[in-house]
Amino acid sequence: MSDSEEHHFESKADAGASKTYPQQAGTIRKNGYIVIKGRPCKVVEVSTSKTGKHGHAKCHFVAIDIFNGKKLEDIVSLLTENGGTKDDLRLPTDETLLSQIKAGFDDGKDLIVSVMSAMGEEQICGLKDIGKN
């Protein structure tokens, strides 16, 4: 190469989607890496619930953002009253309620959760155990 040759590189701004690849939730393990809410994270906890009566097992991931150290979690998937699924609820921040939900899923119980909604936000605020599947 001569000194007079110039090399030009194009820089494209993107959301980073080309730098990720899809992976089945069941293959993700502790100490692996995933993207949650658009942030690169290292997985610190993985838990799964058993397949319910509608055929869907649920996975719960807790991960730490590799750049800012913030803890992130995936969303809770729920069955609505009319039989659809709701996948956009965060886990509650109340540790007692959170542990009750996790224990119920681990035991394969059917749970009814109360959801509080205001100004476009929703959060699980209560729980009722209605027994085993």
TrEMBL record:
Domain of life: Eukaryota
Compositional bias segments (type: Basic and acidic residues): 1-13
GO MF annotations in UniProt: ribosome binding; RNA binding; translation elongation factor activity; translation initiation factor activity
InterPro entries: IF5A-like (IPR001884), IF5A-like_N (IPR048670), IF5A_C (IPR020189), NA-bd_OB-fold (IPR012340), Rib_uL2_dom2 (IPR014722), Trans_elong_IF5A_hypusine_site (IPR019769), Translation_prot_SH3-like_sf (IPR008991)
Domain Translation initiation factor 5A C-terminal: 73-128
Gene Ontology terms describing biological process: positive regulation of translational elongation; positive regulation of translational termination
Post-translational modification: eIF-5A seems to be the only eukaryotic protein to have a hypusine residue which is a post-translational modification of a lysine by the addition of a butylamino group.
UniProt entry keywords in alphabetical sequence: Hypusine, Initiation factor, Protein biosynthesis
Reported function: Translation factor that promotes translation elongation and termination, particularly upon ribosome stalling at specific amino acid sequence contexts. Binds between the exit (E) and peptidyl (P) site of the ribosome and promotes rescue of stalled ribosome: specifically required for efficient translation of polyproline-containing peptides as well as other motifs that stall the ribosome. Acts as ribosome quality control (RQC) cofactor by joining the RQC complex to facilitate peptidyl transfer during CAT tailing step.
Entry's family note: Belongs to the eIF-5A family.
Protein name per the record: Eukaryotic translation initiation factor 5A
Organism: Panicum virgatum
